[in-house]
Design a protein that fits this description.
This protein is of the alpha+beta class. Helices cover 28% and strands 51% of the residues. The chain has a seven-stranded antiparallel beta sheet with strand order 1-7-6-5-4-3-2.
Length: 146
């Protein structure tokens, strides 16, 4: 069962601060409600996270996931390696500098191993988009103000 979500939103902080928050994988549980745990298992040569283990709870379903991450100056992309509930996951944040801060585009596509009722799927999609917009925005603006 394929599920996708995407959104674009503005953040009142420089794109560098957005990227700093995204690279701080261990802080995910602080600003992303569904993330209960997040740890970097390995890093790229430049120090950016490469392989990450997370425990995620969405729509009442808990899942342990391992993903690989790829980074550019303005994007964060991840792919699922292992999961109990998902057969595929591909996500990406793309950050563009604006005159008032940054514009963030969030794209997420997952393939579920099990079939779930449409209401639960819609709730999980809304949670992913809300977390991307509200959680990330709040954390980025908090760090920019510090």
């Amino acid at each position: 069962m394929a599920v996708s979500a995407n959104i674009e939103f503005d953040v009142a902080a420089p794109s560098a601060v957005v990227m700093e928050v995204l690279m701080d994988i261990e802080s995910l549980p602080e600003w992303s409600g569904p993330h209960k745990e997040a740890e970097v298992l390995s890093s790229h040569d430049d120090g950016t996270p490469e392989k990450v283990r997370m425990v995620v709870t969405a729509a009442g379903i808990s899942d342990e996931q391992t993903c690989t991450y790829e980074w550019t100056d303005n994007s964060c992309e991840w792919h699922l390696i292992e999961s109990n509930q998902l057969s595929e996951q591909h996500g990406k944040y793309t950050v563009t500098e604006t005159d008032k801060g940054a514009r963030v585009r969030f794209d997420l596509a997952v393939e579920l191993k099990i079939k779930l009722p449409g209401l639960i799927v819609k709730r999980a999609q809304k949670m992913a988009v809300d977390t991307a917009r509200k959680g990330l925005t709040a954390e980025v603006e908090k760090r920019a103000a510090a």
